[in-house]
Amino acid sequence: MSSRLRPGPLLAGVAALLLALLGSVLLGAADLGWTRVLGEIWAQLTGGHSPLSEREAAILWRLRVPRAVLGALVGAALGVSGAAFQGVFRNPLADPYLLGAAGGAGLGVTLVITMLPQAGSAPGAAQAAAFAGALGGVALTWLLGRSAGNDAATLVLAGVAVGAFLAAGQTFLQQLRLESLQQVYLWILGRLSTAGWSDVLLVLPLLLVSGAVLCACGRLLDLLGTGDEEAASLGVHPGRARAVVLVAASLATAAAVSVAGLIGFVGLVVPHLVRLAFGGTYRIIVPLSLLFGGAFLVLADVLARTALAPAELPLGVITAFTGAPFFAVLLQRSRRA
User: Fold this and answer.
1) DSSP string of 254-296?
2) CB count in 10 Å sphere of residue 254
3) Which one, of 36, 70, 98, lies nearest residue 268 by Cα?
4) C-beta of residue 224 within 8 angstroms of C-beta of residue 90
5) Which segments cross the bilayer (predicted)?
6) Closest by alpha carbon to 288, among 2, 70, 96, 7?
7) Is the peptide bond before 310 cis (omega within 30 degrees of 0)?
8) What is the pLDDT of residue 1?
9) Cα–Cα distance between 148 and 161 in angstroms, integer?
10) How far is CA 189 from CA 18, 127, 164, 167, 245, in A?
């Protein structure tokens, strides 16, 4: 099996993402009619007459399209980060929240909502708190891991300890302000319902940088998979390479959780599906996880919006329904191995 990304799988990933985006734009609580939506898109491309009213066009371009694009960006960030974490730690059960990003983001948002309600209601305050908290949680894990050994296994254990500590702090703050529980849990369950172009512009630069770095590190991840001694004999500095990948993956994860909350299982499920379908080298898995991660989350969001329309399910519930059984299968396979 080839170790390089061929045009066929790449085109399949691009096609899956484009089809998912198209489905997200065509479907929604407001019945705009798929032919009229396509007519509106064609009119925008050619300068022709739009079949939609001004209100319907606003629903399409100010709500559906930015939400679909944001879902693709968040899914891509989680998918590519999950692939990177699995490669760095040589653990098929690793996910983007392994190093404390989830606990840090949750604590940051809870702190703003419970202790600084006026500041928390300001535009972008929750996103900034989640981003800072996620990076803070990863930084705390890194510092703890370095002090105890700075190897992959030590970082994982440090991540478990830091995550538990941050979750305890979040629970303590929630108990102090019980009236804020609903608002906190809505964020924890993940959502794209408040998506707008501002959120897209917030996450896009970080994803472009981190995604490009991670895709360029596919060969490094393959070498790290052979073991630190073997990678060093081939001219790779394992600690430095691991740090570059973890920083890039943590930035992508922090950007994703800052605008969408904690959406689980995307970074776990998507890299495995890509590995099963297209091969086991990270030069293939990382870029395809980015594309298929975006497609996966966009389709999950379509289901969240339409399953009980006009009500909307939390996006994290949909991904958990998909990911939890897959996670159980992985555990069974790991035990047999």
Assistant:
1) HHHHHHH----SHHHHHHHHHHHHH-S-HHHHHHHHHHHHHHH
2) 27
3) 98
4) yes
5) 68-85, 97-119, 125-145, 152-173, 200-222, 243-270, 282-304, 311-331
6) 7
7) yes
8) 47
9) 13
10) 26, 15, 18, 15, 27
Domains of the chain: 7-336 (1.10.3470.10)
DSSP at 78: H
- Sequence letter at residue 67: R
Q: Do 137 and 155 contact (CB within 8 A), yes or no?
A: no
Rounded Cα distance between 88 and 10, Å, is 23
Dist. CA 303–CA 15, nearest whole Å: 19
pLDDT digits (tens, 9 = 90+) for 126-174: 788 888 989 999 999 988 887 776 677 788 888 889 989 998 988 888 8
Reported pTM: 0.89
User: Residues 66, 196: contact at Cβ < 8 Å?
Assistant: yes
Rounded-to-integer distance, Cα 85 and Cα 246, Å: 7
pLDDT of residue 336: 61
> Collapsing DSSP states into helix, strand and coil, what is residue 323?
helix
**Alpha-carbon dihedral 305, 307, 312, 313, rounded to 10 degrees:** -110
Angle between helices 125-148 and 152-176 (to 10 degrees): 140
Q: Are 224 and 88 in contact (CB under 8 A)?
A: yes
Written as one string, the DSSP assignment of 124-192 is THHHHHHHHHHHHHHHHHHHHHHHHT-SHHHHHHHHHHHHHHHHHHHHHHHHH-GGGHHHHHHHHT---
Beta carbons within 8 Å of 168's beta carbon, 6+ residues apart? none
Sequence-distant (6+) residues with CB within 8 A of 109 are 126, 129, 130, 133, 184, 187
Task: Give the Cα separation of 126 and 112 in Å (integer).
Answer: 7
Report CA 103 to chain centroid distance, whole Å: 15
Q: Which residue has the higher pLDDT, 155 or 78?
A: 78
- Whole-number Å distance between alpha carbons of 26 and 65: 10
